[in-house]
Amino acid sequence: MRRDRDEQFHDFVVSRRPRLLHTATLLTAGDTHMAEDLVQATLTKLYVAWPAFQRADNPDGYVRRVLVNALIDEKRRVWRHRERSMAELPDVAGSTPSGAGDAGEAVKLALRELPPRMRAAVVFRYFYDLDVAATADALSCSEGNVKSQTARGLDRLRAALNSPTFLSQGATR
């Protein structure tokens, strides 16, 4: 029985890990190192709760919820507030990462400024095109909360992206 469970989980990981990593990368606003950590934490939690996952009416929603909870847990860690991972180390402290002038990089920087749940609401609604009900299920909140989180998140993203100083400051506000 244990062997069957391990094989099922292995098959799940092989088939779903790339999609989980993509989602985690969006949820972390492009921070691939944190995305890897989130996927690992999510897979660990799923393995422990594998029987519950298999009984779930909506397995995709279950996985999204575990991933968002892992993001929120990670953001609560005190040491995360003091460090920021980067693909390349800057030559000068406080300089903007290379490629920040690109529209995609600007969106990632703006997304980083949103609180984790607000960011998750925006990502699920607009990057994954989930409806309000599916997003509410993934975030374990009401549909009204999803609507307000996405509306405020979009307002904050628009303001950040339209700010002339946003990219020059490297989104350190």
From TrEMBL:
It comes from the Bacteria. Residues 15-80 form the RNA polymerase sigma-70 region domain. SUPFAM superfamilies: Sigma2 domain of RNA polymerase sigma factors, Sigma3 and sigma4 domains of RNA polymerase sigma factors. It holds the Pfam family Sigma70_r2. The keyword Transcription regulation applies. The keyword Transcription regulation applies. Residues 106-157 form the RNA polymerase sigma factor 70 region 4 type domain. Keywords: DNA-binding, Sigma factor, Transcription, Transcription regulation. NCBIfam families: SigE-fam_strep (TIGR02983), sigma70-ECF (TIGR02937). PANTHER family: ECF RNA POLYMERASE SIGMA FACTOR SIGM (PTHR43133:SF50), RNA POLYMERASE ECF-TYPE SIGMA FACTO (PTHR43133). Belongs to the sigma-70 factor family. ECF subfamily. This is SigE family RNA polymerase sigma factor. It comes from Paractinoplanes pyxinae. The lineage of its organism: Bacteria, Bacillati, Actinomycetota, Actinomycetes, Micromonosporales.
